[in-house]
Amino acid sequence: MDWKSWHDKYDDPGSAYARRLQTVRERIRVALDQAPAGPLRAISLCAGQGRDLIPVLAEHPRGADVHARLVELDADNTEHARLAVADAGLERVEIVTGDASLTDHYLDLTPADLVLVCGVYGNLRLPDIENTVAACTSLCATGGTVIWTRGRKPEPSVAPQISAWYEQHGFEQLWLADPGEEQMCVGVHRYTGTPTPLAPGVSLFEFVGYDVLYPRPA
Q1: pTM of the full predicted structure?
Q2: Residue-wise pLDDT tens digits, 55-110
Q3: Which residue among 30, 128, 147, 173 is buried most deeply as judged by most CB within 10 Å?
């Protein structure tokens, strides 16, 4: 999979990917609007080119309060993200080229006020999705927000199960995209529990890729 060219889907305003991106940005704005005063922390797993978080931080009144770290394995995508950060003048946004499943990337910035797991769950096997949801109890601060996405296909949709897993781990559902309106689900949950320490040297998931998990018929 060429993950750099994959991002071209966002450039088509009529695509489901562009609509999902717009929804995620809206939910990031809401999370920042509702965040407590003072410094904030944000992390993004498998951040791609940072098209969701970077533009919002660039224009939001709370953008300068946020120390963010975006972790992405594809070097072409992280280069794109670094240029976007530089153009926006976001001095407190870090772009890391590395395996986003590794907890070591987040040890010094967790628990975070905002955790983005967008474009991730559709590329994982179900046990790894559940494991990552559970790990959000270490990644996310009390009162912090997790924003996640998952396509609704193949059916039956996994999105309701993901939401249920978050609730089982002490998260309150704040918002879930209407299944009748969008084929790609965006979920927003607030952590109501007490974060557990994030263990170093742990891999949270194996990024398999949706093209491998759900191959198209020949």
Answers
A1: 0.95
A2: 999 999 999 999 999 999 999 999 999 999 999 999 999 999 999 999 999 999 99
A3: 147
Asked whether residue 213 is domain-assigned, the answer is no
162 three-state secondary structure: helix
| Contact (Cβ atoms closer than 8 angstroms) between residue 209 and residue 1 | yes
Residue 91 lies in a domain: yes
Nearest to 137 by CA among 112, 100, 154: 112
Would 208 be classed as within a structural domain? no
The DSSP element (H or E) to which 94 belongs, if any, is strand 93-97
40: CATH? 3.40.50.150
Domain count, the chain: 1
**Cβ neighbours of residue 45 closer than 8 Å, sequence gap 6 or more:** 71, 100, 101, 115, 116, 117, 120, 132
Q: Which domain holds residue 106?
A: 7-200
Radius of gyration of the chain (CA): 16
